[in-house]
Amino acid sequence: RLNKEPELLRDDRERIQRELEETAFKNYKAFVAAAECIEKVGNGLEQIGNDLSSIQGRVPVIEQQSSEYEATLAGHLREQKQTKLLASNAAQVQEILDVTQLMETCIKHGSYDETLDLEAFVNKLTVLHPNVGIVRSLEREAKDLSKRMQSQLFSRLKANLQLPECLRIVGYLRRMGNFTEHGLREEYLECRDFWFQQLVDDLPRHDHYAFIKRLTDFHRVHLFDIIMQYRAIFSSKDSAGGGRKGAGGATQEENYRYADLLHVWSARRVDSYLKLLAKSLPFIHEGANLSSVLEHCMYCGLSLGRIGLDFRCLLVPIFQEAVRSLFRGSVKRAMKTCELML
Q1: Is the pTM of this model over 0.85?
Q2: How many CB atoms lie within 10 A of CB 223?
């Protein structure tokens, strides 16, 4: 048995070899396909490795672009949120945008209280939202309209107004806060002076007697009204003691300065009146007319004396010169008449 074992092993080896050859022959295509598959897998793995390296190199760029996209998307989301919020509050936003248009309409119709309320609303919006472009635009438009309203108020002061209307206009100007107290008083007197001067300039001057009469009446009535209105509008009681404040919040020094403003204007108006009187009197050639004018002017001075503008003493030299001139003219005419008669 042991002697036959090497031969049996050899036979088995040959049999196994033949089976392997038969198997290889029968499955040749499978082996070839497997080899090709292995080759392709190897090439594929190599390509995958190259692709992975390429992708790895592009990762930072992709991350950067992703961050940019994320930021852009966040911006769009914020805009979308703001758009939705704007849509839900469209009515309120429209009301805010129409504020300046409403202010303009109020100014045209003289509704100044409503205009000032709307301006205060715009100022409040500016304080609450100083960095919003629309609010800044509304503020600029509101300031322009405020200037227009101020100009309109000053134009109204250049007309014949009663005390209540003057009080309302000055009240509006004070609420606007564009002038100091002294500046407001100057502007007021300037506007009233413009109106008064227009009245004087429009007087017909072909008849000097009638001109002086009407000029004197204008000063007696309108100058008196302007000064009384000024004192009623800008009244301030002097308090005892230097530097202490009176009822209007002004010190005695300020009250004196404001009083000087009225006194200077009043003196200028009286001086202008006296100059016009001195220019017109030489054209009056009748003694009765001159006497009537003197009586009229004296009555005007007496009337204005109630407000501290008694200028009757200043009339004396003017009428003295007029009487001298009238007397000299009468004497010359009498002498010529005598010469002709002789």
Answers
A1: no
A2: 21
